[in-house]
Design brief:
The complex is a heterodimer. By secondary structure, chain A is α+β, with helices and mostly antiparallel strands. Helix content of chain A is about 70%, strand content about 15%. Chain A is built from 3 helices and 3 strands, in the order αααβββ. In chain A, α1 packs antiparallel against α2, α1 packs parallel to α3 and α2 packs antiparallel against α3. Chain A is rod-shaped and about 80 Å long. By secondary structure, chain B is mainly α. Chain B has a single domain, classed as Arc Repressor Mutant, subunit A. Helices cover about 55% and strands about 10% of the residues of chain B. Chain B has 6 helices and 3 strands; from the N terminus they run αβααβαβαα. In chain B, strands 1-3-2 form a 3-stranded antiparallel sheet. Classes of the chains: A alpha+beta, B mainly alpha.
């Protein structure tokens, strides 16, 4: 009985080892794709003007990290970074819009003709910076 | 010039990394290694400091085709950043000048 259990145990151990080896190999093959898709997802959360820069910068950061698990952990961090950076972008835009000056548009020429009974009033002028001159 | 960055402990760690190597450009990965900050914390800080004009950044010179890898982006402390970092350390620790000189 003990011998049967022993042999069964050896087979179970060999089976587990083979399975975990397969699992590790599978994971090694998938992790680079998972990293790439995580970076793409993170970059998509950024403002349009930032995307190209950070896509390259973050791929370079991943490239400098040792080990697949470490690379994946950094890539997951980019998701959090992107969400924070998007909100920083909104804050900066809001601050710019409140501090920016209103740019006056080009002056617009106008002609007005008003007929009051027999009296005809004719005026010409131009509008600029919110007030008119006639 | 953007919004003045908040001086938090992670921000000080980032500034400290630049103080130890003031003349070198540091990539995000270099700064991460030195400060032990995660990427989720590090890049928002770098963005805030850059928007405030404390840091500037540039790509490494070679193209990705020549390098056969993505280009690194190097960050450097600006004159304004150096001044602000000194005063931030002085305010927080009272040893701003000392910390700067030792690096």
């Amino acid at each position: 009985m003990a011998a049967i259990i022993g042999v069964g145990g050896i087979f179970a151990a060999l089976f587990t080892a083979a399975l975990s080896g397969l699992f590790a190999e599978e994971l090694r093959a998938w992790i680079p794709r998972m990293i790439e898709s995580t970076i793409r997802h993170a970059v998509d959360q950024l403002r349009a003007g930032q995307r190209e820069r950070y896509a390259e910068e973050w791929r370079s950061h991943i490239n400098q990290m040792p080990g697949q698990i470490g690379k994946f952990a950094v890539a997951v961090g980019f998701l959090l970074a992107a969400r924070r950076m998007a909100s920083i972008g909104k804050l900066a835009l809001a601050s710019e819009s409140t501090t920016s000056k209103q740019v006056p548009g080009p002056p617009v020429a106008f002609t007005v003709s008003v007929t009051l009974g027999r009296l005809k009033v004719h005026g010409e002028g131009h509008v600029s910076e919110g007030h008119s001159q006639g | 010039m953007g919004i003045e960055p908040r001086i938090t402990a992670p921000t000080l760690k980032v500034l400290r990394a630049f103080m130890t190597r003031p003349d070198d450009g540091l990539s995000g990965a270099d700064i991460g290694r030195q400060t032990k900050l995660g990427s989720g914390t590090l890049y928002p800080i770098l963005l805030r400091l850059e928007q405030a004009g404390w840091l500037d950044s540039h790509w490494e010179d070679e193209t990705p085709q020549v390098l056969e890898r993505p280009r690194r982006r190097f960050y450097r402390l600006t004159g304004l950043g150096a001044k602000k970092a000194k005063s931030a350390f002085l305010e927080v620790t009272g040893i701003g000048e000392l910390a700067w000189q030792r690096s």
